[in-house]
Target: Thioredoxin reductase
Amino acid sequence: MQDVIIIGGSFAGLTAAMQLGRARRKVTVLDTGLNRNRYAENAHNIFGHDGAPPADLLGAARRQVAHYPTVELVGAGAVSISGEPDNFAVATTAGDTISGRRLILSYGIVDQFPDMAGFAECWGKTVIHCPFCHGYEVAGRPWALLYSSPMSLHGPMLYANWTDDITLILDGHEIIDEERHKLEKRRVRIYDGKLASISQQGGRIEGVTLDDGTSVELAALYAHPRNRPSADLHAQLGLDMQATPTGTMIAVGDMQATSRPGIYAAGDLAMAMHSVTFATNAGSLAAMGALQSMLV
Ligand SMILES: Cc1cc2nc3c(=O)[nH]c(=O)nc-3n(C[C@H](O)[C@H](O)[C@H](O)COP(=O)(O)OP(=O)(O)OC[C@H]3O[C@@H](n4cnc5c(N)ncnc54)[C@H](O)[C@@H]3O)c2cc1C
Model:
C-alpha cells in the first residue's frame, strides 16, 4: 500500500513527490509525459531557471525525485480510480492496479486548438497565451489579441507594458460601446472580423487575415483557446468542479483538498491562473495536505 498516488508527474506532481519523498513517504507517480508547455522552446519567469527548456526542467526534477528510495516514477497513465481514503485503487494503462491511502490529481489540462492552419505550428512560439511567459522576447513589436471571452478585454491594458502596437480582433464577438471607447482611447486598434487565416514560417507568425479581408502584420498573436482536463478521473470520482474563463477546474479548498476526503488536486487542473510557479506551489500544498491528513 502506497501512502500517496500522484496522477500526473509534471511541475505540480513532481513537486508533491519531492516533498513526500523527503518525508520518507511511499509514493507512486504515474505520468504520460505530455506537459502542457512542451510546445515552447523555453520556459520563462521561473525562479532560478528563466529561459530553461521545459524538458530540461522536468528531466532534472525527475532525476532529483528518483533519488528518494520511497518514490517510484511510473511511465503509465491512470485510467480508473475506486475506493475510499486509506484504500484507493488506481488502475493504469500498464494493466496494474496500485493501492494508496491518499491521491493527488495533477494531470493538467489540454488546450483545444481551433481548426485553423498555422495555429498549432505557432502555439507556444508566436501564438501565445501569457505575456509574462513569452512576451519579453517580442516586446515593442505588433501584437494582436484574439477575443475569446469578456476576460479578453483586460489583455490590451496589460499588454501596454510590452508594446504600444496592439490590435484587438473581436472574431465575430460584440463588445459594448463603453469598452470599445475605453480601448480606442488607449490607441488599441479594434477589428470586428473573424480570424480567417494565419500566415507563418516555421512557427514564426507573420500576420493574420480576417474574413472581411483585413490583413494585420504581427509578431505575436495572443489567444486563449478553450481547454479541458487531460483525463476524466475527476468525473469518475464525482468531484466538485468550477468554471474558469476558458474551461473547468477541480474545486479545491484549504491545502488543495477536493470535495472528497483523501483526494487533493494541484496545478493547472485545479486553478484558473496557470504558470509553472503556481503549479509547483499548489503541488507543495497538496503534498502537505495529504501528509497532514495521514497524521490523525
Ligand atoms: C505553450 C505554453 C507555454 C507556457 N510557457 C510557460 C512559461 O514560460 N512559464 C510558465 O511559468 N508557465 C508556462 N506555461 C504554463 C505551464 O505550462 C503550466 O502552468 C504547467 O505546465 C502546469 O503544470 P501541471 O503540472 O499542472 O500540468 P502539466 O505540466 O500539463 O502536466 C500534467 C502531466 O500529467 C500527465 N497526465 C495526463 N493525464 C494523465 C493520466 N491519466 N495519468 C497519468 N498522467 C497523466 C501529462 O502527460 C503531464 O505530464 C505555458 C503553457 C503553455 C500552454
In short: The longest helix spans residues 276-293. The chain is about 25% helix and 30% strand.
